[in-house]
Each structure stands twice: as C-alpha cells, then as structure tokens.
C-alpha cells in the first residue's frame, strides 16, 4: 500500500525527495546534487516537517536517508548561512544574540525531529559527510557507509563550535571522548575503515549501489517486525541512553505493562511455532 507520505504534498519538497521503494519503507534523499547536497534553509525546514509527518504515518515502519549524486552532504550551505547572519537585526548585541539563538534552536530541531521520530532511521553515507552531515547522521539510529565515504567535523575550520548535535551525540556513539575531541578540535578527515573501527558506522559496503541495497534490505527487515515492538524499542533505547540503568529499567517496566498486552505477541509466537518468519505475520498499522 502506498504511504500517505508519498502524496501530492510531498511532491512539493524542493531540497529533499521522498520515495517508497520497498513496502512500509520510506527513502528520503538529500536532493541538491548540484550543490553536493549542501543543506540550505529550505532543507532544514523540510526535514522538520517530513519527520513529524513520518512519525504520524501508520504505513511507514522504517526510514532510509541518503544523498543524491556524488556526495552525502557538504554540510550547511555557507552562502545561505552568510545571508542569515547578515539579516540579523541591526540592534544592540543582546537582541542580535537572542535572534541568533532562535535560529540555532530551529536548526537543532531539524535533527532532533529525526531522533524523536519513533520509526528507526538508517543513514546510508557515500562520499563526503561534512559538518552538519555529521550532526545529521549522529541523530540516526543506524549508520552504514560506502568505502569512499569520509567524515569531517568541519566547524572549527569555519571559526565556530558545532552546535546542532555532533558534540552532544557523537561521544555516546563512538565511546571515545579522546577521539571525539581530536576530530572536533582538528577537523581532520575520518575515512570509512576508521569509522567502522570506532563504531560510527556498523557496515562498510564497496560502493553506493551496494550500500543502498543493503540499507534497504535492513530497513525492510525492520519493517517486517511488529511496529509495537520496534517503535517501543527505539523509544526505550533513547530514554535509557541519557539516564542511569535503574531509571531505564523503571521506564521499560512501565512501558511494557501496557505494551505486553498487544496482539502482536501471540501472533509472533504462533508464527514461530509454525516455522514462519515475521514477514508472514499481518501486523496491524500503528
């Protein structure tokens, strides 16, 4: 069945493209290939709206995000960033600061909306993933890349500290504060083998075609499982990431006092007894 997200409203997207290539899986492309998918102001706004809509789409159970053309993303569109800074109110420093803070918080929401979306999000990275691209993939649940991919926390080279998620999320992904500090202080490039060894990505594929095929297969495997189970798992993983183990255990106990009553459990058990896979179970929409 076609997802509501592939309706006419989605066709109005300009910096993004949304496709449905597998059942219950949406494929979101950064779609400014002529600009190496640099994130313009329209793209930041579209990301928020798309992921808010996906969160409410009962047909969608998993999302793949990739880049059109030869790059995943070159990061924020510097020309548009310059225009934004130039348009700050010509008032005293305090008022300019408040206006700038509002813009930063709006940018942060673009990736936080992706993280908060209960549907798992897989990033498929090929070529350069620079600056805001690292912020973006840090908000994804699963990250794969091609052999030609490279990653760069570029902000210090532009004279600023990264401010839309990398400094907060990346240390919890790679598990080495020293490595994160090195990357953030020096803006050095991290290539695919190192990204795999440090845990930034969990698979490296030979090329973009193989990358997208494997990422879509994983998304399809996720979408075949109970949406109650998968989305509950994501919610609890995120909740527990930022809290002590004891609080996470309390939260999942409260969560499952309701969710263990789902019809998906007896359906899944019966399928296992019948030697069937989850893809054979007609789970209801969520």
TrEMBL record:
Domain of life from the UniProt record: Eukaryota
Catalysis performed (reactions): (3E,5Z)-octadienoyl-CoA = (2E,4E)-octadienoyl-CoA; (3E,5Z,8Z,11Z,14Z)-eicosapentaenoyl-CoA = (2E,4E,8Z,11Z,14Z)-eicosapentaenoyl-CoA
InterPro entries in the record: ClpP/crotonase-like_dom_sf (IPR029045), Ech1-like (IPR045002), Enoyl-CoA_hyd/isom_CS (IPR018376), Enoyl-CoA_hydra/iso (IPR001753), Enoyl-CoA_hydra_C (IPR014748)
GO CC annotation: mitochondrion; peroxisome
CDD domains: crotonase-like
One GO BP annotation of this record: fatty acid beta-oxidation
Location in the cell: Peroxisome
GO MF assignments: delta(3,5)-delta(2,4)-dienoyl-CoA isomerase activity
PROSITE patterns in UniProt: ENOYL_COA_HYDRATASE (PS00166)
This protein's pathway: Lipid metabolism; fatty acid beta-oxidation
Principal localisation: other
Keywords in alphabetical order: Acetylation, Fatty acid metabolism, Isomerase, Lipid metabolism, Peroxisome
PANTHER family (alphabetical): DELTA(3,5)-DELTA(2,4)-DIENOYL-COA ISOMERASE, MITOCHONDRIAL, ENOYL-COA HYDRATASE
Family note: Belongs to the enoyl-CoA hydratase/isomerase family.
Function: Isomerization of 3-trans,5-cis-dienoyl-CoA to 2-trans,4-trans-dienoyl-CoA.
Name of protein: Delta(3,5)-Delta(2,4)-dienoyl-CoA isomerase, mitochondrial
Source organism per UniProt: Taeniopygia guttata (Zebra finch)
């Amino acid at each position: 069945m076609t997802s509501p997200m592939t309706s006419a409203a989605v066709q109005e997207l300009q910096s993004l493209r949304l496709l449905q290539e597998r059942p219950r899986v949406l494929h979101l492309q950064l779609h400014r290939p002529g600009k190496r998918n640099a994130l313009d102001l329209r793209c930041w706004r579209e990301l928020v709206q798309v992921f808010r809509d996906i969160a409410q789409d009962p047909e969608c159970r998993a999302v793949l995000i990739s880049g059109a053309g030869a790059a995943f993303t070159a990061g924020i569109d510097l020309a548009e960033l310059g225009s934004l800074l130039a348009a700050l109110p010509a008032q005293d420093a305090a008022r300019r600061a408040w206006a700038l803070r509002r813009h930063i918080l709006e940018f942060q929401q673009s990736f936080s909306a992706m993280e908060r979306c209960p549907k798992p999000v897989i990033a498929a990275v090929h070529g350069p993933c620079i600056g805001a691209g690292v912020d973006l993939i840090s908000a994804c649940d699963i990250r794969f890349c091609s052999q030609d991919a490279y990653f760069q926390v570029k902000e210090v080279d532009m004279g600023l500290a990264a401010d839309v998620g990398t400094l907060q999320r990346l240390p919890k992904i790679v598990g080495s504060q020293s490595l994160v500090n090195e990357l953030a202080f020096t803006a050095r490039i991290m290539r695919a083998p190192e990204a795999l060894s440090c845990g930034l990505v969990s698979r490296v594929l030979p090329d973009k075609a193989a990358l997208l095929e494997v990422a879509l297969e994983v998304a399809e495997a996720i979408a075949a499982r109970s949406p109650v189970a998968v989305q509950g798992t994501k919610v609890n993983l995120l909740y527990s990431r930022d809290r002590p183990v004891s609080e996470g255990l309390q939260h999942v106990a409260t969560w499952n006092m309701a969710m263990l009553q789902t019809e998906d459990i007896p359906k899944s058990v019966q399928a296992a007894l019948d030697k069937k896979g989850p893809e054979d179970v007609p789970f209801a929409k969520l």
